[in-house]
């Protein structure tokens, strides 16, 4: 058959070509194919490896205090630097992916993460360890955006939202890997072997991605054979690309559109608590503040992970059905997330084990709300700036985490005066989280009001860039 469809080439440009399909060929953009699922699985595993690297220091926080001879404020710098680099890299990474393709970007990102983990494994220097976390944050930034770029190229539009939620949810298995096998190796073999294992994982997934990933499906010839590399290069050369927006124009459009900022603050209020707990302060809070054993704390993190995985697809369905009421859903969930923390922190005595479990069930169920902002961005923003707009939205939760994590460290040191950290110290320190959440919630409300000011019709219409 002959069909007209957009064909994304390896440089990120878009063309519209007449494509002749041989008999029996299934276009991945019309049918979910085994090849598409294989591409997605490789991208998903890459994201899992990135999450593992991101959360590994969270379960090793107590060991890091001893290894680098640092206090809580200095420990918080690890997460603040990594998360800050990750957040600031979102827009540049989105632009790079659009221009050079997801495959090359994800492979390079996995290798950069592996290098960072190797340095962190071998050094005892605090400044060098901080530099390693910079590399880990930069490499981590490529995984999720790369996966999001591959989905619309390999799957029908009707299936893309489901696979988006599955990627975000199942990717949290990386947190399980940190909480169980990585933590077990850390306690059994020590710091160096544990973090070198993450280096090995990064190198392996980079090699797998180099072999298995493809930016776009290759259309076979009339005889059903896969086109040669020469034929693919010639087809790319003959394609007539649309005019590509400049970086400055792209940034102007994204940073001035209120829906991108609504996505930013949706991510801010939806992901901040989850990241603060799983990336750094959850393990110290449970082991030092509540007196739990490391094994008990690991169980809590596993329960958190399972809750996120189960809730992700459900949250996607709710987002699709909410339609115009999506903002109400976002605001209610953001308030509920803060409320369950307020209940826990209200206790002057250390809460029991079951209370921290219930907190993590609730937090894990509510955390996928942070992805609802991506749905709004996709509905309002033209595809020419979609990756960059998604990158801006994806910055919110990590910037909030960076600021709040550092605030917790400063308040802990102020409260404990350099001695051991107790539950009362963590209660005081969590005021940093409350303040940062309140700022984000205010931003969420303001961005919604600005979006409404554009008019109901404009709210539902994509930007026209012609």
UniProtKB/TrEMBL annotation:
Cellular compartment(s): Cell membrane; Lysosome membrane
Pfam families in alphabetical order: MFS_1
Stretches that traverse the bilayer: 32-52, 72-93, 105-124, 163-184, 190-213, 298-320, 327-347, 353-374, 386-408, 428-451
Region annotated Disordered, chain positions: 1-24, 221-240
Summary of subunit composition and partner proteins: Homodimer. Interacts with lysosomal protein GLMP (via lumenal domain); the interaction starts while both proteins are still in the endoplasmic reticulum and is required for stabilization of MFSD1 in lysosomes but has no direct effect on its targeting to lysosomes or transporter activity.
Catalytic activity of the protein: L-arginyl-glycine(out) = L-arginyl-glycine(in); L-lysyl-L-lysine(out) = L-lysyl-L-lysine(in); L-histidyl-L-alpha-amino acid(out) = L-histidyl-L-alpha-amino acid(in); L-lysyl-L-alpha-amino acid(out) = L-lysyl-L-alpha-amino acid(in)
Full protein name: Lysosomal dipeptide transporter MFSD1
Membrane topology summary: Multi-pass membrane protein
Residue stretches of biased makeup (Basic residues): 227-236
MF-aspect GO terms: transmembrane transporter activity
Domain Major facilitator superfamily (MFS) profile positions: 39-455
Keywords: Lysosome, Membrane, Transmembrane, Transmembrane helix, Transport
Ranges of compositional bias, category Polar residues: 10-19
Main localization, broad class: membrane
Xref: PROSITE patterns: MFS
InterPro entries tied to this protein: MFS, MFS_dom, MFS_trans_sf, MFSD1
GO cellular component: lysosomal membrane; plasma membrane
UniProt record similarity statement: Belongs to the major facilitator superfamily.
Function: Lysosomal dipeptide uniporter that selectively exports lysine, arginine or histidine-containing dipeptides with a net positive charge from the lysosome lumen into the cytosol. Could play a role in a specific type of protein O-glycosylation indirectly regulating macrophages migration and tissue invasion. Also essential for liver homeostasis.
CDD domains linked: MFS
Top-level taxon of the source organism: Bacteria
